[in-house]
């Protein structure tokens, strides 16, 4: 008995499935470009060069009172400079702490004014979020800042273009500490060590995403991150690893 020809309904179903699959693939690619930490698909972002013996510790969502202050002590004890991406609204509330971070030789960058998901905001809102944070930092520091990290790493071409127009180099990361979760300092450090080891195997430097603050408000508990930082510096400093700010890679 000959095979039956496919019915119109079957053909339609197959076509619909193909369209759905294509749409899903396109959505997947867009999500990758918008959200994957070191994707370059939406425009160049600074991540890490081919220097496996270098690490940049970066701290987002501050300034955050005690956590930021304790972190400054730890970094000073190990004679290491780090990078801080501050939220403009918190900068307005804690300008003296921001100046203290800069005076200790750390690099400070823009992390927007209110920490929204920029990829889904209007052009006007994106520009306002970036320029108002620039202004808050410049008012506190007396100098313009030159680096920017998008909240959640979420971006689209307009975000990166606007950042560059405002004199900011967009920075992502290639090691995630997951320290916004309530996990122990040991767990935070373990995530970081795993990421650094993977990058070293790929002959890349490590750009480590940590948090001295939380975008929900000043006062978020981040002592676990401070403790993890101390452990990481004890582990890596004697091995000849060089700790740098992201400005040395720009
Ligand atoms: Zn953030």
Keywords for this structure?
single chain, 250 residues, alpha/beta, 6-stranded parallel beta sheet, binds zinc ion
Structure description:
With 250 residues, the chain is α/β, with parallel strands linked by helices. The protein contains 8 helices and 8 strands. The protein has helices at 8-35, 65-77, 88-93, 95-103, 123-141, 157-165, 185-201, 223-236, and strands at 54-62, 83-86, 107-110, 147-148, 169-170, 175-176, 206-211, 242-243. Strands 1, 2, 3, 6, 7 and 8 form a 6-stranded parallel sheet that branches. Strands 4-5 form a two-stranded parallel sheet. Helix 4 (95-103) packs across helix 5 (123-141) and helix 7 packs across helix 8 (223-236). The model is unreliable at 1-20 (pLDDT under 50). Zinc ion binds at residues 60-61, 111, 115, 151, 215.
Q: Round the Cα radius of gyration to an integer and report it.
A: 21 Å
Terminal CA distance reads 70 Å
Helix percentage: 40-55%
If helices are DSSP runs of H or I spanning 4 or more residues, what is the number of helices?
A: 8
Number of strands: 8
Question: What is the residue-mean pLDDT, rounded to a whole number?
Answer: 90
Order of helices and strands: HEHEHHEHEHEEHEHE
**Shape estimate:** globular
Which distinct ligands sit in these coordinates?
zinc ion
pLDDT below 50 for ≥5 consecutive residues: which ranges? 1-20
Class by helix and strand content? alpha/beta
């Amino acid at each position: 008995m000959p095979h039956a020809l496919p019915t119109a309904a079957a053909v339609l179903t197959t076509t619909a499935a193909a369209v759905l699959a294509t749409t899903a693939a396109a959505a997947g690619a867009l999500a990758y470009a918008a959200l994957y930490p070191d994707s370059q698909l939406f425009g160049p972002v600074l991540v890490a060069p081919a220097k496996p013996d270098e690490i940049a510790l970066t701290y987002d969502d501050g300034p955050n009172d005690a956590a930021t202050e304790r972190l400054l002590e730890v970094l000073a004890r190990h004679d290491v400079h780090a990078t801080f991406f501050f939220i403009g609204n918190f900068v307005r509330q804690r300008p003296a702490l921001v100046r203290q971070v800069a005076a200790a030789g750390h690099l400070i960058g823009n992390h927007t004014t209110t920490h929204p998901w920029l990829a889904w905001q209007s052009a006007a809102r994106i520009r306002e979020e970036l320029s108002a944070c620039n202004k808050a930092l410049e008012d506190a520091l007396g100098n313009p800042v030159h680096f920017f990290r998008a909240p959640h790493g979420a971006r689209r071409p307009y975000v990166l273009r606007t950042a560059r127009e405002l004199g900011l180099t967009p920075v992502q990361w290639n090691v995630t500490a997951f320290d916004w979760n309530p996990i122990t300092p040991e767990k935070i450090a373990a995530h970081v060590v795993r990421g650094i080891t993977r990058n070293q195997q790929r002959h890349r430097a490590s750009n480590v995403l940590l948090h001295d603050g939380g975008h929900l408000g000043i006062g978020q508990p981040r002592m676990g991150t401070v403790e993890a930082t101390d452990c990481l510096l004890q582990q890596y400093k004697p091995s000849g690893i060089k700790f740098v700010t992201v400005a040395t890679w720009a």
